[in-house]
Amino acid sequence: MTILLNKPVAPCLKTLAAYLEQVNASGWDTNFGPLHQRLTYKLEEYLQVKNLLLVSNGTLALQVTYKALGLKRSICTPFSYIATAGSLAWDKIPTSFVDIDSNSLNLCPSLVDKRLELSNDFDSIIATHVYGNPCAVESFDHLSSKYNVKVIYDAAHAFGVRYGENSLLSYGDASTLSFHATKVFHTIEGGAIIFKENEAYKKAKQLINFSIDSNGTPTGAGINAKLNEYQCAVGLTLLDSIDNILDHRRTIFNEYTRLLESSVELPIWNENTSLTNGSYFPIILKNELEKKRIKTLLDGHDIPCREYFSPSLNMVFKQEEVCPVSQSIASRILCLPLHFYLTLDEVRHISSVIKESRK
Fold it and tell me: In whole angstroms, what is the distance from residue 104 CA to residue 84 CA?
């Protein structure tokens, strides 16, 4: 059998064609067109959030957020995709890395508290809901009030995740999403920002259109980060089947967990998570040597896997901070295949190969 690490969900061509005919008939291909407005409304309704701004990719979602909120100096997680901290570096925002919690793999609030006690130079915290596992959002809310700092969540993995009775995306000053083709929900390329405050949303909306105001006058340095109508058509098409997509991914995730939880170390999920999304399935091996051995074994069975995330971002950006937990996890983590087209039989085959290697 041929097993793929990931496979983008293909939109129904008949449904997509109907949306594309609307675009062609209107002649409104981009610049906040009718499908852009419709997708915005439907995503806010589905995700139960307000102030959602569609953008052209997940990295620009981060950059626009940092600009809209006026960040000057940030604390960031070292265990995330390169874009989380790379966008800070691109915007020349000085950044310090603070280590992660060894159970959740998310930014550790108690260590952030200690860092903020030592310095009042920081105005923001950048945390990632790693693999869709919710951060300790109440703790970060407390730190936000205690030190008067903004909290931004990279929620690229957290589409549809619920925390208690609320959308996980409703926490913090802003949450950013990626709608890259490999994500749970996608527009081929794309992303979104959910702002806590409407004023920040309005500022960001102007920024992504070259900072042009409602009178058509440029007001400063902006950028072009708009999502076009053709990509919105893909999003609207896939949103029709998103519940089916998420249900299947949760089934796959749960089967992996049932089969492997006694054989390998797994991240510990936030106990207040009321709805997951099966975004990724990471396993943590004992050490780097064992990770290489398991990866070689999987490769030999034509089973792809990914060292995601590796290396730790404090190492990538050659920062002075040492983050021993993040560096250790990054050296021994593997993500197994997980996508909408993966079957339970394939999950059982993958799991059996790993379990056999542990005997």
Answer: 18
Instruction: Compute how many other C-beta atoms are within 10 angstroms of the C-beta atom of residue 344.
Output: 12
59-116 confidence digits (pLDDT tens): 999 999 999 999 999 999 999 999 999 999 999 999 999 999 999 999 999 999 999 9
Q: Nearest-CA neighbor of 194 among 216, 213, 173?
A: 173
Helices 344-357/288-300 angle, 10° precision? 130
Phi-psi category of residue 307: left, alpha or beta, with phi > 0 → left and psi -120 to 50 → alpha: beta
> Is the CB of residue 100 less than 8 Å from the CB of residue 107?
yes
Task: Find out whether 135 and 172 touch, Cβ atoms under 8 Å.
Answer: no
Phi, psi of 5 (to 5 degrees): -65, -45
Q: By C-alpha distance, which of 130, 116, 114 is closest to 73?
A: 116
Give the tens place of pLDDT for each residue, 303-347. 999 999 999 999 999 887 899 999 999 999 999 999 999 999 999
What b/e string do you get for 94-129 counting C-beta neighbours within 10 Å, with b at 16 or more?
A: ebbbbbbbbebbbbbbebbbebbeeeeebbbbbbbb
Q: To which H or E segment does residue 195 belong?
A: strand 191-195
Q: What is the DSSP-derived secondary structure letter of residue 74?
A: E
Contacts of 214 (CB under 8 A, 6+ apart): none
What 3-state class would DSSP assign to 76? Answer: strand
Q: How far apart are CA 236 and CA 17, in angstroms?
A: 12
Nearest to 173 by CA among 155, 191, 160: 155
Instruction: Give CA–CA dist 153/200, Å, rounded.
Output: 15
Q: Which 8-state DSSP code applies to residue 130?
A: G
Residue with tokens 């034509």: 302
Place of tokens 């409407």: 198
CA dihedral 195, 221, 70, 66 (to 10 degrees): 60
Q: Where are the beta strands (DSSP E) in 27-149?
A: 52-55, 74-76, 95-97, 124-128
Q: What is the pTM of this model?
A: 0.97
